[in-house]
Structure formats: C-alpha cells, structure tokens
Amino acid sequence: MAEVATTPPTHRQLFVGMQQVALSSFGGGLSAWSERIVVEERQWMSKEEFITGLTVARLFPGPNQINMAVYIGSHFRGLTGAIAALLGILLLPFSLLMLLGLGYYYLHETLAVDRVLSGVITASAGMALSMGFKIAGAYSRDPVALLLAGTSFLAMSVFHVRLVPLVLVAGPLAMAWYWPRQPKP
Question: How much is the pLDDT for 27?
Fold first, then answer.
C-alpha cells in the first residue's frame, strides 16, 4: 500500500490535480479517476480517507465530484483550498463543454458524432463499474457494509425506493453502526 504524502498539497497543486481529474474522465467515471489521481498517483490521501470523503460528498446535494473537490480542497487548505479545487475541477472543463456544445449544435446529425458518443457512454459505464469494484474490495470483509450496500441496491432497483428516503433511513443507521467508540479498558 502506498504511503500518504506528509506535506499537504499547495493551492496550485489542488487546482492542477482537480483539473487532471476533470480532464481525465469523458462521459463519467470521475470517482474512479479521482481515486486514481488523489490516492494512487499523488498520494494525498489514503484509500480509507478517500472513501470517507466520497461518502460525505455523496450525502450532500449536487454533483458528487464537485462536492469531492470541495472536500479535498478544504481538507488540506480550508476555504481557499476548496475554492482552488473547485476552480480546478470546473474552469477548463466548463469552457471545453461550452465549445463542444457549440460544435454538437452544428454537427449533431452526423453519423460519426453518434458513434463517438456511443463509445464514450460504454467507457463511462466501465469506469463506474471499476470504481464500484474498488470500493467493494475495501469493504469485502465487512458484512455490515455489504448488507447495507446490498439492501440499498435492492431497495432502489427492485422496490424503486427513491434516493432521499433511502439516505434518510440508511444514512443514520450506517452512522450509528460505524460511529467511533471508545475502546473498553
């Protein structure tokens, strides 16, 4: 297992790192790229710290990776770090998206554009599955985590329970179960 860097990233490193995350993923899979860059390449966080941050990011409204960028930035540099990371994940990708949107407006009926988009969708599904397997590996020896994940999956996919009620029920249960306890003397 790689060690976590001892020096926290600078504002510039947060900006560039989040920009790398945003520009590495086309059509989805940001969680997988974020984990690869933040944990494996730059070693800013351990896998456990990253999963904790990702869980927090998913509990708040809004796009998960925007929340994750804010979490990472604030974790290391407070409010200014959150702003640097947020700008890193949004600024250049937003500009590129506007340019691509303009191009799509003029070329959307071209067959080649349709084929490229089909390939991007397939790749993003693979990235999402990859992240799911990485997280599952971290919890493979935790039967309560597997039970919560399986129950949540069944509730949403089979019983069509909406996300908000599910989070309002499963979230407090998971927090109560995993809440840090004092070791017994």
Answer: 59
